[in-house]
Specification:
two-stranded antiparallel sheet, two-stranded parallel sheet, globular, mainly alpha, 404 residues
Amino acid sequence: MIHGKHILTTLVLCSALSVSARSQSVIHYSVDELTRVREALKSGDREAGRFADALLKRGKKALKAVPKSITTKEAIPPSGDKRDYMSQGRYWWADPSKPDGLPYIRRDGETNPEIERMPDHTLLNETIHQVQVLTLSYVLSGEAAYAKKAVEFLKVWFLDDSTRMNPNMNFAQGIPGRSAGRGVGIIDGRRFSSLTDIVTILASSPEMNSDETARLRRWFSEYYDWLRNSKNGKDEEDARNNHGTWYDDQAVSIALFLGKNEDAREILNRAKEKRIAAQIEPDGSQPEELARTVSWDYSLFNLEAHFLLASLGDRAGVDLWKYETSDGRSLLKALDWLLPVFRGERKWTHKQIRKISFERLCPLLMEAGERFGNGQYRADAERLSCMRGWSTAVPLNWKSLIHY
């Protein structure tokens, strides 16, 4: 179990972040969340203790892990530089009517296992996951070894000249016979958003020096410039579906991390019309997502991006939670449109080639219930496993780290 001196460590780190409560949160790791976990542990909350023990078990395993570089892939990007990120379009397959299979054809919702031959996507997600686990293990235990290892992962992926990823996604989600890389591939980097708070926490520890912090900020500054100004970046910014929303999440979170607060507010205010009004119908449906072969999954996926964007809006002073168009389009309307299916009041009549899962409703219901004081959302959440342990103040996104 966690000891008293480790609770003090959490308090110190909370102070080091020097922001206040929910209004200052950045997606995953706010001071409010750190404080809630600290108080739960301090009071001897058993669920919080079990979570902390499970996380530290994974943290100890991560201490033995070898950081992977983007250069470990066998495939060579068109640039000839293995430091360039490279991936293949998930839903594109060889054309069986062509001798060489080229150009590839789209089979929406069906993942081509060939994508694993380009492991950059997997390696990037694993790196971010390990850094998250190690950093929170440091927060909960106070042991410097965790922070030191987290910094090691960051150095290999972002800082060391011979192993670091170049700050672009020029060759993300390419399609054999069609394109070396596309704007839609930028969604591969959506988890960059969760790194900004992690870097802030690590920067408050003795294990990350000021030069390393500055170089990480420089990397994200260069990536942000590419994101906003490259052709691929502009293509993704103009996307009308979930890709556009996830683009905004990346852009806003990085802008706030870099202190570009006016940029963040501009993107968030534009999202009222460009994302909410354009993507959500007055009845709450999301036509662009309903057009997919896994329409339930993508409706939730886009709503998750909207909720994250609204959370970022809290920090920038732009309220997306309560924004509503004159004809009733809003984030809650989109959530409410999905719930009758979960409650068994309506069948899902749109194309869905996979079995519908309701688990991803958990964080949306809990967030909406807490923000709007809506007892029905909380009652719906009680029917799902996510409700267990919520009262202990262990955030759902923290728990996801032990189920990765």
